[in-house]
Amino acid sequence: MTSTLSPEIAINQAFADDVRRGLTSDPKYLLSRYFYDAAGDKLFQKIMNLPEYYLTWCEFEIFQKHWQNILRQLDGQPFDLVELGAGDGLKTRVLIRQFLAEKADFRYLPIDISRTVLQHLRETLYELWPDLPVTPVEGEYFSALQEIDRLSDRRKLVLFLGSNIGNMSQERAADFLRQLRQKLHPDDLLLVGFDLKKDPAVVLAAYNDSQGVTRDFNLNLLRRINRELGADFDLGAFRHWPTYNPLSGDTKSYLVSEQAQTVHIEALALEIPFRKWEAIDMELSKKYDPPEIEWLAEHAGFEVEQWFFDEKKYFADVLFRAA
Questions:
Q1: What pLDDT sits at residue 2?
Q2: Mean pLDDT across the stretch 4-9?
Q3: pTM of the prediction?
């Protein structure tokens, strides 16, 4: 077989291990965290501007309407504004702008695993607000929070936005929040974005947009495996197939093989057979109702302090207080 592995790309061992584990499992799966290479970042920016993708604009609306109530919970104390998985910080800028206008005493500590993303975010914020104290922290969430705790004893307002918690099952989300609670001090605050259960047609359209951008976003992970691990996925042989279960609130995305085929992955020395109509589990995006959110808080050691909804009640940012 002719080599398809690009010689200038160093193999990301964690990525390689996770691809091996996922594609040799039954059923097959890939981790959605790997959607976000340079091309994936651009595609997700396009997704956030799609008319069907209500999540981003709902959260914008919440911040624009309720920033004063969020800030009021800090009682005028100095605080650290910590964001888990900061990305481009677009929505967070709404809060930052208003907090600065109110002369709140805070600094911004974005956490992300991508050094490039953090550098770009820092440069963007410096152009907007040169005097804003920004301390980017590269790494996984919990180790980064431990580093922040070492750097500062200020009260924290931690942001976990964009329905990122929906990428976990409810049980995994409870475990994640329990671990997060262990890194916080009593009275620290956590603002979590939850996509709410609603008309199933509205939910499904957000993951099956008319322009096919979400399809391309999913297929881009196969393209990344081709490029970085020397695979020979034929992207045209897979169909993007999203589903929504209104009972569980689970929105799932799959890539379904439209033919029997074998995919070769050079860097892993693997041959991966696919049966016709066999699927790769690509992503979970769970939707919540208020009782489930209250259950999460109780099981993780938080108290629900306040609810913030958009006008249609499609989305909620819920303020938890560390008990």
A1: 52
A2: 59
A3: 0.91
Which alpha helices (H) appear in 92-248, and where do they start and end? 92-101, 115-128, 141-151, 170-182, 200-206, 213-229
- Domains of the chain (ranges plus CATH)? 13-51+202-286 (no CATH), 73-196+292-322 (3.40.50.150)
Question: What is the Cα gyration radius of the chain?
Answer: 21
What's the CA gap between 316 and 194, in Å, rounded?
5
First to last CA, the chain: 59
Instruction: Yes or no: say if 90 and 110 are a contact pair by the CB < 8 Å rule.
Output: no
- Give every CB contact of residue 265 below 8 A, 6+ residues apart in sequence: 19, 20, 23, 225, 229, 230, 231, 271, 272
What gap in Å lies between CA 43 and CA 35, rounded to an integer?
10
pLDDT at 3 over 70: no
In the predicted structure, residue 232 carries a pLDDT above the cut 60? yes
Q: What does the alpha-carbon distance between residue 48 and residue 51 come to, in Å, rounded to a whole number?
A: 8
Beta strand pairing call for 155-160 and 79-84: parallel
Question: What separation in angstroms does the CA of 63 have from each of 77, 174, 318?
Answer: 20, 25, 12
Structure tokens at 122: 């820092």
Q: Which amino acid is at 127?
A: E
Q: Pairing state of beta strands 155-160 and 302-309?
A: unpaired
Q: How far apart are CA 301 and CA 157, in angstroms?
A: 16
Contact 231, 200 (CB under 8 A): no
